[in-house]
Amino acid sequence: MFATPRVTKFAATAIAVSGLALAAFAGAGTANAFSSVDDEFLSAISDEGISYDSARTAVSNAHYVCGSIDDGADPLDLGDEILANTDLTTHQAAVFVVESVFNYCPEHTGLLP
């Protein structure tokens, strides 16, 4: 599950569906700082209308999702936590969890509904 301080940081800085420009992600220097897996993850969530203040924080939160699943969290519960603590739609919260798993912990794909 998301720890309370982590949820606050996650909700406040990582993901917001407010139509903010993705200038930090679009810059060539920033794109080069990430692996191809990170780029694929960021592209996939962006394609679903999920905006973020920091690409690095979005990737970090994806790793947090995987770490939580490693520790026994249910992906559906993680989606509910994200939904409850962000402005994401149900679909977007699910996409964030699914893309986190597909990109960073594919060994947990079988746990997805």
General description of the model:
α5 crosses α7. The protein is mainly α and 113 residues long. The longest helix is centred in the middle third of the chain and has 16 residues. The protein is built from 7 helices and no strands. 31% of the residues are buried. It is 65% helix and 0% strand. The N terminus is likely disordered.
How do the strands and helices of this protein lay out in sequence?
Layout: H1 4-14, H2 23-26, H3 28-32, H4 36-47, H5 55-70, H6 75-85, H7 90-104
Helix pairs in contact: 4-7, 5-7, 6-7
Which keywords apply here?
113 residues, mainly alpha, 7 helices, 0% strand, globular
Outline:
This protein is mainly α and 113 residues long.
User: Ends: how far apart?
Assistant: 18 Å
Query: How many strand segments?
Result: 0
Outline the low-pLDDT stretches.
Answer: 1-32
Number of helices: 7
- Kindly estimate the percentage of residues that lie in beta strands according to DSSP: under 5%
Q: What overall form do the CA principal axes indicate?
A: globular
Q: What's the overall average pLDDT, rounded? A: 79
